[in-house]
Amino acid sequence: MNMQFLSLKRKEKTTLQKPHPLGLGLSCFILRSSSNFISIHGRIGQGREKGGKKAGTDFGTQALKRRGKRSFPSQITSLPSPNPYPPTGIGASTCTMPGYYDISDILMEDEAVSVVFHVGANGVGLLDPGTETNSVEKGAKIDLPFWLAHELCRRRAVSITIPSCFGQKMKKDVQADAACVDLGTRYPYFYEFGCKLFPLVGDKSIGPFLRHTFASRYKEMLSKSHTASLNAIPKFVLRLSKEEYQLFEAARSSMVEFKKWRVRDLGLMKATILGHKRKTDLH
Amino acid sequence: MAGQSDHSLSIFSAAEVEFIAEDEMIEIVPNIRMDALNLLCGDFGPFLPQIPCKVPLWLAVALKKRGKCSIRTPDWMSVEKLTQVLEAERESPREFQPLPFHYVEISRLLLDHAHDDIPEVYMVRSLIEDIRNVRFHKVESGLETISGRTYAVKLKNLSAMEVNLVRPFMVRVLQAFDKHDSPETVQQADASASKRPQVVDRGLRVSLSCVTC
């Protein structure tokens, strides 16, 4: 299911790139009205539904309603005024909200976290693969997607355990050499996830840890992204998380554009000029 | 382009920066006689042969392309001045030498269209390339010193094209650092009542002198 969504996202990227005077919100709406998107989203809705369709309890349906609201907006004709700050409860994260309709935000929330249930829940036995009856016991340890765990945590029905990407092993890795840690393949949403997770879990050291990781990785890798060569993708790009990759792309594309501008009008004259250029060129 | 997906960054493309640069005044020596041009941006006096006059750069290039004038190189584009600037750039690792705001674009336009009007054109071209390289390396090394504590970054005497080059990256980096920093400051405010973290070292202060002209 995720792969389909990702391939659609890539197709949509071309339409998203067109500068729209009314901004990203409206372009998201335009996407939504295309049938492709709705059908895929319908499938995603099903996927979510599987988790909580038979929810006798309140939690599942509430979470579903929010998810449902996101997929099928009731008004397509009028201009949306999307609330860029999704409703958060006690643990209001102070980091900048990426926006309710942001695709990478939606994808990021799909990450699985391991939670421990404080209360028993009836009718959601599908969440726990090891249960016989159609319910989850109190104290059971289950993997839930982050958006569900977030809502349940707000209502104090579960408590989230820190996933392995912020655990001790990771901290040791980062302290050894932050630039070598492979965030691109293992945890592409490392920073966003950490920002969202940080207010919900009692551990106060995640924030500084994220900052430290980012600062050291930035120093090693990102400050060199301007002069990264055009064709050969340097190795460290594969190790960047999504957010870092955007930074890298920004630098590189503006560099590429500048170089294109420089040689734009030279045309036939290029050969003679190249011969006289000094070797200390930017290439 | 880097900025399109996030329109709040309002990037200029290189061609747009060049367009803005073409408004600079430059001196030409026409070789035809022409009446005064009354344009929206100003009146450019009657052109008499061999009498120098000042016109905007776009007009100069247009006339030059039609063979109606010859362009006089601006003062800062002589070999001596450029060598001086280059030496000074190499000596001071953190400062940028004052150069005209649009020197990249002006020099490119002149070298492309009026290369026969510039004395020692290849020397000038290579000098300008070197200056640009040195300045860009300074910007890069300055970028490395941005840490979480930087609130603002100030780069004096940076030219329009160079600013445009680093702007998307710089803005996003500062945003990212801010995002990672703010939960921490809130958390520290919880822990130790009303004591903001003292910002000691701000690294390079860079004020993004955006091209808003």
From TrEMBL, chain A:
GO BP terms: namely: mitotic DNA replication initiation
Q: Gene Ontology terms, cellular component aspect?
A: GINS complex
Q: Tell me which residues make up the DNA replication complex GINS protein PSF3 N-terminal domain.
A: 101-153
Native source species = Rhynchospora tenuis
Limits of the GINS subunit domain:
168-261
* Keyword Nucleus set for record: yes
Ordered alphabetically, the record's keywords are: DNA replication, Nucleus
Q: What is the lineage of its organism?
A: Eukaryota, Viridiplantae, Streptophyta, Embryophyta, Tracheophyta
Superkingdom classification of source: Eukaryota
Q: Where in the cell is it found?
A: Nucleus
Q: Which SUPFAM superfamilies match?
A: GINS helical bundle-like, PriA/YqbF domain
The similarity comment for this entry is:
Belongs to the GINS3/PSF3 family.
**What is this protein called in UniProt?**
DNA replication complex GINS protein PSF3
Q: What is its main location?
A: nucleus
Q: Known Pfam families for this protein?
A: PSF3_N, Sld5
**The keyword Transferase belongs to this UniProt entry's keyword annotation:** no
User: Mind telling me which InterPro entries this protein's record contains?
Assistant: GINS_A (IPR021151), GINS_bundle-like_dom_sf (IPR036224), GINS_Psf3 (IPR010492), GINS_Psf3_sf (IPR038437), PSF3_N (IPR055221)
Automatic annotation (TrEMBL), chain B:
Superkingdom of this protein's organism:
Eukaryota
Q: What is its main location?
A: nucleus
Gene3D superfamilies for the chain: 1.20.58.1020, 3.40.5.50
Q: Where in the cell is it found?
A: Nucleus
Q: Where is the signal peptide?
A: none
Does the keyword Nucleus feature in the UniProt annotation? yes
Q: In what residue span(s) does the GINS subunit domain sit? A: 76-175
Family membership noted in the UniProt record: Belongs to the GINS2/PSF2 family.
Which UniProt keywords are present, listed alphabetically?
DNA replication, Nucleus
Pfam families on file: PSF2_N, Sld5
Name the UniProt record assigns to this protein: DNA replication complex GINS protein PSF2
Q: Which residue numbers delimit the DNA replication complex GINS protein PSF2 N-terminal domain? A: 14-71
User: What Gene Ontology cellular-component terms does the record carry?
Assistant: GINS complex
Q: How does it assemble?
A: Component of the GINS complex.
Q: Which InterPro entries match?
A: GINS_A, GINS_bundle-like_dom_sf, GINS_Psf2, PSF2_N
Q: Which PANTHER family match?
A: DNA REPLICATION COMPLEX GINS PROTEIN PSF2
Q: Which organism is it from?
A: Rhynchospora tenuis
Record bears the keyword Ribonucleoprotein: no
The lineage, from the top, is:
Eukaryota, Viridiplantae, Streptophyta, Embryophyta, Tracheophyta
